[in-house]
Specification:
It contains one helix and no strands. The chain has 44 residues and is mainly alpha-helical. It has one domain (1-44). The longest helix is centred in the middle third of the chain and has 35 residues, at 3-37.
Length: 44
C-alpha cells in the first residue's frame, strides 16, 4: 500500500467529517434562532 495515498485519504475523510459537523452546527443554530423569533405559545 502506498502510504502517500493512505494519508491523502485520511485528509479527505477528515475534511468530509468536518463538513458534516459544520452543517449540523448551522442547522442547530438556525433552529435556536427560529425558536427565539417564533416562541412556542403556552396553552392554559
Amino acid at each position: 500500500m502506498n502510504m502517500v495515498n493512505f494519508y491523502e485519504s485520511l485528509r479527505v475523510m477528515g475534511m468530509g467529517m468536518a463538513g458534516i459537523f459544520v452543517v449540523i452546527g448551522v442547522f442547530y443554530a438556525l433552529i435556536v434562532i427560529l425558536g427565539k423569533i417564533f416562541p412556542e405559545n403556552a396553552h392554559k
